[in-house]
Specification:
Carboxymethylenebutenolidase homolog; Dienelactn_hydro; CMBL; alpha/beta; Rossmann fold; ten-stranded mixed sheet; 33% helix; globular; hydrolase activity; cytoplasm
Length: 317
């Protein structure tokens, strides 16, 4: 992880330099609607309601009206809830996005990039996945300390040093256990999927190598991913990246594809880091839309149609 600092630092050249709360990327019609929702969400007053093994801190149901001509199935009603996972002494915040009308019962854990779980691009993407019938949990991997776009670049390595790998891994395990208890043990779903962007993509690989709680993973331009760790992964992984991304070299992704049985690498020509969830041009928009469709089909084939992937809650005991 620490050896990855120099590589990860290069990310500054591939992310927008706009100020906090300002996202200048070009959005597809669906994402524009969801961004308005995200802005409204941030102004909703907080409540605190105990709900079993988590605390609901805010909750709202959102009706999404698509623009004419947008062909998106089942994006009608999304239930968004901010929750606290874990005990009162050591809990983490997370967002849970649930499809209401056409929920397929499948749980997905989404690991964010360095900008954290409250970032508008991450929220938009999570909403879009939930619109397709899923339950998407996005944990706060940085415990309230994500990287901010206005922070001076020389501070990055110090910031990264505060994100202890052991603590991040523990929070991912805690989030995984919550999903198993919430969806699998309750009989709602037998399958879980794992998605990661950049920093989250790195931890996706490490997470899949350590446990069997997930039926598949989708790694978007993971930083500092390790081929040695990949040898311990027993589920198929979809890799999505661009061939102009020095943080996630195509050669490394191709090697990972060969090592992990049943995996697939989708490489987009001319694309750099973050294009799939932070498109900035019309051309990136088209590839981002294509990448999302690849993701959607992959999840459907590996988690919805494949009845062999089962998560057993007692593995956490």
């Amino acid at each position: 992880m620490r050896a990855a600092a120099a590589v990860a630092a290069a990310a500054f050249h591939f992310f927008p330099a706009s100020g906090l709360g300002v996202d200048r990327r070009r959005r597809s019609p669906l994402l524009r609607h969801l961004s308005i929702i995200s802005s409204f969400w941030s102004r909703v007053g907080l409540t605190s309601i105990s709900m079993g093994n988590y605390v609901c801190t805010r909750k709202l149901q959102i009706m999404v009206k698509l623009e004419d001509g947008v062909d998106d199935e089942a994006c009608e009603l999304v239930n968004g809830t901010e929750i606290l996972i874990g005990g009162s002494g050591d809990s983490i915040r997370a967002y849970l996005f649930k499809a209401v009308k056409n929920n397929n019962g499948t749980g997905l854990l989404l690991l964010s990039d360095i900008f954290g779980f409250e970032d508008s691009s991450t929220r938009d993407f999570a909403y879009q996945i939930a619109c397709n019938g899923y339950n998407v949990l996005v944990p706060d991997l940085f415990r309230g300390d994500p990287w901010k776009k206005r922070q001076p670049k020389p501070e990055f390595e110090n910031w990264l040093g505060r994100q202890q790998p052991e603590r991040v891994a523990k929070d991912i395990e805690l989030s995984t256990k919550w999903m198993v208890d919430e969806f699998a043990a309750a009989g709602i779903s037998k399958k879980l999927g794992l998605i990661g962007f950049g920093f989250g993509g790195e931890h996706l690989i490490e997470t899949l190598a350590k446990n069997n709680y997930f039926g598949t993973g989708v790694c978007f331009y993971g930083t500092a991913i390790s081929t040695s760790v990949a040898e311990d992964i027993n589920v198929p992984v979809l890799f999505i990246c661009g061939d102009s991304d020095p943080i996630c070299p195509v050669s490394l992704v191709s090697e990972m594809e060969k090592i992990i049985k049943g995996s697939r690498a989708v490489i987009y020509s001319g694309r750099g880091h973050g294009f799939a969830h932070r498109p900035e041009t019309q051309e990136e928009d088209r590839d981002a839309e294509d990448a999302f469709n690849v993701l959607r089909n992959w999840l459907k084939d590996r988690l919805i149609l494949d009845e062999d992937n089962a998560v057993v809650s007692k593995q956490f005991v």
